[in-house]
């Protein structure tokens, strides 16, 4: 029924062409499975939920021309004015630009060094005023947010804080998972502020929590006295027009300062992930093209093979072989080669992945990528072969045996 | 004979336009993807200080506090920068022929000309050796003198671009610009120093270290200059606490004497002997400071050449490397594919080859004829690949630009093909095509003329 023996002997007579198919199939599997995995990893990285209302947020900074120190009253005047604007949902001053990928970070502790219950964690620190939480669009998990009279004014010197809020993930790192640290004290930069609230987990300045455990929110308006940064949350779809309006309004309030460019938080996020996006695009393009090229190669090689054996094929048909038998013969031949290629390809995929793990900190390729890739390439091989094979089977025996 | 073969090749390509087009396409796409990735890697791995690679060293000291590592410490376990206190001490050493302590700072730039719209500018605050260490030549004027590194001198050096922008070019020495409202005198104009990557300062990304404005180091204290960029402090640093009620000056003095790191430090050490003496000097300084309680860990240091410093900072991202390797595998697939298609095509021409052989052509001649045809396809594929790679680089640039490359001043136009890369592209295309053509040509030259003559 299945002519494995004769087919295998035919393949052996035409080693190089067979080898080309096997090489092509195995390399294709190697590239596709690894590229698909890299794409998936990058996409997961890019799809993180930041926890802040990034699509409605933008920042801009103001800096007096004559290096005059900015006072709290100036900031409050600016922000109060902005909050009156029709399209502003809320606004706050911030010490660092959200999602910028790096900013003010440091160690925070519970207890004193040397104590048995001493705990440390790395915090992504962001100082905001009493409108901070609402502007960021972050929800409270428990406790309360800063009141207006708790906001500290800092000029030059380091500040002492009385109250702070932690994000849930920072609280977990310091006090244990699911703990309730409300009312407890933090040991941080020489002061011992009380924890008054826990927020839902979110990303403040760092988009990668491998450096920091979570966010520490501080009640403070300005830390660098010579410039200040405002974070504005727009209503509805008004963000882009509001960005121009806010800069104009700030210029109107005081013309003796430089108003920096407004940058949206979405743009900050896109910027942080631009290399990942590039990698994904290149890999996706490569996968599509590699599939096209492989189909092309298999069609080409199978055509060659079929054509080389046109006369034999005609003789078989003349001797009574059905079209189905001819199709079956070539498909089995193709299946044998594709399968061999896939077996080698699995090894190759793992080998390529192993190299990437060793040199480029890529994680191990999950088996399901190889399995899906195997079936995909297998189907690809068979479908590609079907075109020339069906054409060959349609040849009438008389035509095939006649000389060219 | 070669011309004749070319003619034959062209005729043969015209005979099977679809198949030939597919081969050109396959090879072209392979070449294009590899070249795009190699160009990215080539641009990112440029070392602008290659000429002085053996003499320049970036300094890292093991200055992290005992129980934590400074944020952004590198793989060698050491922080990226040094503190002001360390930098000012090390600047005094005469062992290096030049040494540079520096950081970026942000200023508001205005002119006495009322029409000039004030704007922000990033300047590099540096010790005077910057220009001699990095070989940045002066066009007009000269560098500030030694005192300006220690006490405030309101002088600046600007580069050609800024000179053009502010003063319309020409010798601007003696002219004035205003930073934070204060007048500064231009004392020198230098050539633009804008290497990509900005190897002199890699703390702010691939090009973030480049500036058009340079200021003397002595201004730090007088103007209370702070870095526009990375600054890391240690929570456990006893020196950092500013007492409430301190004056601004007292508080800034604390900032200058604490463990916080925010300066880059380069030393030029002309030979191995100088390097050895410098390491001894560093060790002595470190242990002295450890005794004083300033450093907590054991002495360790790194003096990295520009190339080592680029590698340590992973300027060429792992993503780029992974993609480049996959692109190379992809090119192999394309070559294998072209071999397959060429074999199929040339095999169809085997009868002609048989007749030529029967009429007296040697096997070698048949081989060469077919190789010319394969090479022809290869050259077309290569040419197509070069065109396509330019299109792909355009796409790359637009992806980077659309995702806010302008945000931090990174210019995506740096990702373009230079003459080296063009030469490499042509070479890759040629080698690929010859590789692709060898086997099919050889296969055809082995055909038995008798076989075809019989059928004929």
From TrEMBL, chain A:
Family to which this protein belongs: Belongs to the ABC-4 integral membrane protein family.
Top-level lineage group: Bacteria
Record keyword Nucleus present: no
Keyword Oxidoreductase found: no
Membrane topology: Multi-pass membrane protein
Domain named ABC3 transporter permease C-terminal: residues: 286-397
Chief location: membrane
Lineage of the organism: Bacteria, Pseudomonadati, Pseudomonadota, Gammaproteobacteria, Alteromonadales
Transmembrane stretches, start-end: 16-39, 282-306, 326-352, 372-394
InterPro entries (UniProt xref): ABC3_permease_C, MacB_PCD, Macrolide_Exporter_MacB
Keywords: Cell membrane, Membrane, Transmembrane, Transmembrane helix
Protein name (database record): FtsX-like permease family protein
Domain MacB-like periplasmic core: 42-241
Subcellular localization, as worded in the UniProt entry: Cell membrane
TrEMBL record, chain B:
InterPro entries per record: ABC3_permease_C, MacB_PCD, Macrolide_Exporter_MacB
Keywords: Cell membrane, Membrane, Transmembrane, Transmembrane helix
Organism phylogeny: Bacteria, Pseudomonadati, Pseudomonadota, Gammaproteobacteria, Alteromonadales
Segments forming domain MacB-like periplasmic core: 20-224
Subcellular location: Cell membrane
Protein name: ABC transporter permease
Domain ABC3 transporter permease C-terminal: 327-449
Residue ranges of the TM segments: 21-40, 325-347, 376-400, 420-442
Primary location class: membrane
Topology within the bilayer: Multi-pass membrane protein
Pfam families: FtsX (PF02687), MacB_PCD (PF12704)
